[in-house]
Each structure stands twice: as structure tokens, then as C-alpha cells.
Amino acid sequence: MDWVPHVTVACVIERDGKFLCVEEQINGVSVINQPSGHWERGETLIQGAVRETLEETGWDVEVQALLGVYEFKPAALDYCFLRFAFIATALRHYPERPLDTGIERALWLTPTELETAAARHRSPMVMRGVDDYRAGRRFPLDLIAHLTPSP
Fold first, then answer.
1. Which domain holds residue 71?
2. For the chain (length 151 residues), average pLDDT per consecutive 10?
3. Domain for residue 151, yes or no?
4. CA–CA dist 46, 83 (Å, integer)
5. Spatial CA neighbour of 104 closest among 43, 32, 46
6. Is 149 inside a domain boundary?
7. Cβ atoms < 10 Å from Cβ of 80
8. Contact yes or no for 32/125 (Cβ under 8 A)
9. How many CA atoms lie less than 13 Å away from 58 in the CB half-sphere?
């Protein structure tokens, strides 16, 4: 069996001391995550992060910086997740836009609210991303070189 990591993209978005999160159903359990999802063929990592955020929260965002690259292997799975997390700014909300299947709602949470809900985080990448953001981690977007032209 080939080992294939799942490449995902995510956005950490802070506004007025709160972070944009999603509450989603995973295997019948309600969990909290950043807007995130699988990187799709034909898009850059940044385009994927912007798309996933819009699909899961109804928010248009502008990516400002790379926050970090995170690897996580859940004990129950044969594969790992490789997450490219970006820092983004919320631009415009489309409240009438339907959210992706499985997403119950988008919500803004303070760091304290996120810490209190740690048992409901989809993965340890949720709090680590917020902690890294709050610690001032920022990498320039040109750290990522897309050598294949996007369509």
C-alpha cells in the first residue's frame, strides 16, 4: 500500500480578538476547526485556502502570510495530514451563502473560548495555529514557489 499524505490548506483569521472557526460534523461528532480542507488540482495553495474559507464560512478573505506547515497523523488513520496554514484578513461576509456539507456554522471565538473547547478540536493543529499566530509567526508568501502555472 502506498503512503500518501493528505495535503490540506487552512486560514487563521483574527478580528477584534476573535478567530474565525467552523463547527462541523465528523463521524457524527461536532468538532471545532479553522476553515480548512483539501488542496484541489489546478489551484495554488493560496487559492485553495481562500476557496475553503469561503465554502465553509461564507467569508471572502485575503491571504497575508504563511503561518506554518503542520504535519499530523491521527492514530486511527493510515495516513497523515500536511496542512499549509495561512494568515488571512476577513474582507466580506456572504451570510446567505450555503456552507459546505457537514459544516454546522461559522463562529468567532476568543483564544480563551478555544482553549476551553480543546477537547472538541478536530486536531491539535487548531490551537497550534492560533498559538503560532499570537506568538507573531509570519512567513512571506513567496516562501512557496508554485512552478506550475495556474489555469
1. 6-143
2. 84 98 93 97 96 98 98 88 97 96 96 97 96 98 84 57
3. no
4. 12
5. 32
6. no
7. 14
8. no
9. 14
- Rounded Cα distance, 9 and 39, in Å: 6
pLDDT in tens, 79-105: 889 999 999 999 999 999 999 999 999
∠ CA 11-13-147, nearest 5°, is 35
Query: Residue 103: what residue type?
Result: I
CA–CA gap between residue 21 and residue 13 (Å, rounded)? 8
